Amino acid sequence: MSNASGGALGFLHKSHITAEPGYNRWRVPPASIAIHLCIGSVYAWSVFNPPLTRELGVVASAADDWSLSSVVWIFSVAIVFLGLAAAFAGKWLEEVGPRMVGVVAAILWGGGFIIGSFGISSHQLWMIYLGYGVLGGCGLGLGYVSPVSTLIRWFPDRRGMATGMAIMGFGGGAMIAAPVKGWLLGLFQKAPDYLGAQDAVATVVENGRMFAETAAGRVEVVLANATQAAGFGGEAGLYAVGTGNTGAAQTFLVLGVVYFVVMMIAAFQYRVPAANWKPEGWQPKPVASGMVSQNNVHIDQALKTPQFWQLWIMLCFNVTAGIGVIGVAKTMMSEIFGSVMPLVVTAAFASTYVLMISVFNMVGRFFWASTSDYIGRKATYMCFFVLGTLLYLSVPYFASAVATNPSMVYLLGFYAATMIIFSMYGGGFATIPAYLADMFGTMHVGGIHGRLLTAWSVAGVLGPLAITSLREMSVNSAIADLSTRVDPAAFAERFGAPLAQLDQLVAARTVTIARLMEIAPAGTIDPTPSLYNTTMYCMAALLVVAFFANLFMRPVKDHHHHEAPKMAPVPGE
Fold first, then answer.
1. Band of the pLDDT at 392, cuts 50, 70, 90?
2. What is the DSSP letter of 336?
């Protein structure tokens, strides 16, 4: 066997993994789903935020602990590198095949966790950014694209269903990972040394840090309240910094090893079909719309076509709208309905709502991608954009209506609308590879898909940025409006400062919408449920732009097609 086509890893090259006649193509999807379930755990990153922000203090954040804002961006870095790795490695994937790419993905994703584990235990934040964010993010991108072109070639009769199955695993990864991560953290966590109640221990504060005087000398401590201590089976009081364990480092290490093993086993299940293979008895159907090409477009040529950029805009805007809402879904449910229906919208209700988002995100990937096999990709995206625009516009209606009339009808309407939105968010990811195969042929679809995923990187930054800045504008606008309605004397008495100092009071978070509502005249409508209206209108506008990008989609012009013959010539011709 020659190793020329891949160096030391030549035995992983696609030329060595061609399936023998009679190979069961249904062995490939479970391998793809397994890899996507592993990398899909990135969506459950938020589980790590609390332990990482109190790694030293454990029960509460110590002076040297990382801030939440410095930890949250690790997720964004991973998503950006997912898109970059998929874009740059797409061409390589076409050259070497899915097994080699799957093995490298396993090394990067599993190894990223292990490096992150050392970063946590040595308290070096840059190591977590490097391990989980950069290397892990590259593993995400490679693992994400590795099965796509292979599945499309194995299932030419069901392109949408095949990619939907694999990418469904990515959507479901967080559903499994969130409880598993929580269980592992609980298994490895250890409460720090308890020194006693606050009034029973002599303490001194220096440079903002609290120290306790003990027989062994001065020890830095954190003060935990009853709720914080109860999470570790302790009681309120002073705990010695650096003596406990959140379990984060060990959890990272275990996950790194498990993900590496599972992804390696799955990668070795990959096979590629022989040249010109097709399912027994299957004949390509002539497509009336002409939107399914029988020709191939080279990966570098694809970027020169308007169709690639139309699809880029469609994916980017669909994901921007969805990812922005996913990030604040729990807060949105609590803020819009929690204040007017507190007995229904409890903390448990909001948590179940988040779980259902994952369910619809996952099921939508399979449902919409499979549906596209019957109604076509263009029609499927029309559903996303027309239905999505109407649903985004319905959210402000439900929010405004429930503020004046707390009825279950509006809660159910909001719930249904957002669930369909999340199903289409997942469906957009799952249907795009089949749409690419229809437009550009199957020869380079994995690489073209990789380059298209840069749209996800952009959306991963654009979505959360848009929703947080638009919400902040709405909050400031609502406070300014309420301040014109309240009595200046009542304001000065409540906040200890005149209305003229409103900006400083808002910046210090002394003045909030809730506190202004306490002194607002009777009959004033609480603006809290309407804080997301501007965001929803903005997201609907993005989908309108994406609708036109899809509406003007046409088959790729002939001059872009690959010049090489699609089938080997018969000898003697």
1. very high
2. I
In sequence order, the 6+-apart residues with CB closer than 8 A to the CB of 531 are 335, 471, 474, 475, 478
CA–CA separation, 551 and 311 (whole Å) = 11
One-letter amino acid of 105: A
Q: Which of 38, 149, 170 is nearest to 450 (CA)?
A: 149
What b/e sequence results for 453-483 when a residue is b if at least 16 CB atoms lie within 10 Å of its CB, and e otherwise?
A: bbbbbbbbebbbebbeebbeebbeebbeebb
- The alpha carbon of residue 345 and the mean position of all alpha carbons in its chain are separated, in whole angstroms, by 25
- d(C-alpha 434, C-alpha 159), whole Å: 6
Determine contact, residues 303/71, Cβ cutoff 8 Å: no
Would you say the C-alpha torsion 431, 428, 359, 171 has a positive or negative sign?
positive
Beta bridge partners of 206: 209
Residue 428 has pLDDT above 90, yes or no: yes
Average pLDDT over residues 490-504: 84
- On the CB side of 97, CA atoms within 13 Å amount to 23
The C-alpha angle with vertex 542 and arms to 538 and 544, in degrees rounded to 5, equals 115
Residue type, 295: N
DSSP strand E in 172-246: where?
Answer: 194-196, 203-206, 209-214, 217-224, 237-240
Mean pLDDT, range 521-536, rounded to an integer: 83
* Phi, psi angle pair for 241, to nearest 5°: -70, 135
Give the other-Cβ count within 10 Å of 527's Cβ: 20
Contact in structure between 498 and 359 (CB atoms under 8 Å): no
Calpha distance 181→160 (Å, rounded): 32
Ranking 112-121, 358-367, 498-507 by mean pLDDT, the lowest is 498-507
Q: Which residues contact 227 (CB under 8 A, 6 or more apart)?
A: none
- What is the model's pTM? 0.78
What's the mean pLDDT in 365-377? 92
List the single range of 2-6, 65-69, 97-101, 447-451 with lowest mean pLDDT: 2-6
Which residue stretches of 64-158 are H helix? 68-96, 98-121, 125-128, 136-145, 148-154
Q: Please, which residues bridge with residue 220 across strands?
A: 211
Contact (CB, 8 A) for 87 and 450: yes
Mean pLDDT, residues 207-224 = 83
Other CB atoms within 10 Å distance of the CB of residue 335:
19
- pLDDT at residue 219 tops 60: yes
Q: What is the pLDDT of residue 523?
A: 81
Amino acid letter, 550? N
CA atoms within 13 A on the CB side of 168: 22
- How far, in Å, CA of 300 to CA of 305, rounded? 10
Average pLDDT score, the chain: 86
